[in-house]
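Re: the 502-residue chain
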Amino acid sequence: MTTFASGTAAFNSQDRITRDALTVLQPGFTGTTAPDWVLRRLGEGLASVGVFGRNIISAEQLSALTAQLRAERDDVLVAIDEEGGDVTRLEVRTGSSFPGNHALGAVDDPELTRQVALELGRRLAACGVNFSWAPVADVNSNSANPVIGVRSFGADQDLVARHTAAYVSGLQAAGVAACTKHFPGHGDTAVDSHLAVPRIDATADILRARELVPFRAAIAAGTRAVMSAHILVPVLDPTRPGTLSHRVLTELLRGELGYDGLIVTDGIEMQAIAGTYGIEHGTVLAIAAGADAICVGGGLSDDETVRRLRDALVAAVRSGELPEERLADAAQRVRAMATWTATAEVAQPDPALTDIGLVAARRALHVTRVDPYTPPADPLFVASLTPETNIAVGTETPWGVSAELTRLVPGTETGSFAGEDAGHAAIVAAGERRIVAVVRDEHRYPWMTGALDILLKARPDTIVVEMGLPQAAPRGALYIATHGAARVCGTAAAEVIAGVTA
């Protein structure tokens, strides 16, 4: 740390370090209005906040919240974890109006992907949100991945690359900064980094030919931010996960890939970091490794957490563990991002894109008919075979086909089933009604496969809707793969079942 002869100069230096430490934090908070502590911290140097589903009731309320934040600091970065598809915060209580990445990859029309991202970005910007932790650029090469799955465009790196670039271009054309994630690639994992440290034992050649390809495309497309992953890749760094690795963030991302934008960490309170290094030490190590902003607030969302992380950074500068210049550089990158978003042109509504999400969801359907299909004349029974939801998706967001199918086929009822007895329980609940079995990643759950076996043996006319990765073989009298569980995916599937022509 630089020392000064003048007491005033020393005070100013310390004040600058404290402000910089606040500037690199991206905290969340509770409530649908900004707490007093958030407004106070904005005055002290905080430059970013994250909003989550808990903060959002409606577009109008979110607009009022962001206006409240900007009354305190007009260039504040308001970030959101809005991927569309299964991971939505803007429409957390209804399900998304936009299909997720896997559906867009199934269509494989980059211009459609760009249009979807543009319209989603426009809606975010209209609410005062100017930074989205999206798109996911992970190549989902491991179909057993518990946390990526349909959040990925697919298992082919070139397909993922072209859609990542298209998404970045569309989102940023709306004036919303894109944050491409999760570097260096979270697709080939069987562990959720919310819970533990995943490990990828790929060779350097495989990483460069697979994981890094979409990130190169995102950088070429001008992504304003990249989010790090809490994953251990021994060929890159045998001891530290990507978020904390100088080799990964500075040598690889900055050096080899030539990236000069903002580097944001995944949630620092996730167990991959909090359970191994602790959030304070993890924050210091991340900034020292080359990260510029610390995402925190998905779980911890209080002023005390902000104070702890701020003080940890200041103490690390004082002790010499963290160079003052590195903290200052990180803070400057955050301010540069704030300047970009404050001056970016916000896209105007385009009537041609109003229903682009539903258009995309319809195009993403893959339908297999075993026999000629006749739409139902009588009410149906929707049996949702419901797995545990991963933390990124959350439990608040509804999924399935029942809401729209009930509208299209009046009298239709629904039930949720799980576990070894799910198939028998669904048959009893359905009575004489034809069954629509809705599954999500059947290939990952033996109990779900067993339930379908029982249903199809007893009721061969059962309709099957797969709303996760369609890895299992199609079966049922009618099989519909939606490639995601967004509300519009359910709507598109319900239209096919009911025989409605779009």
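Residues 1-11 have pLDDT under 50 and may be disordered.
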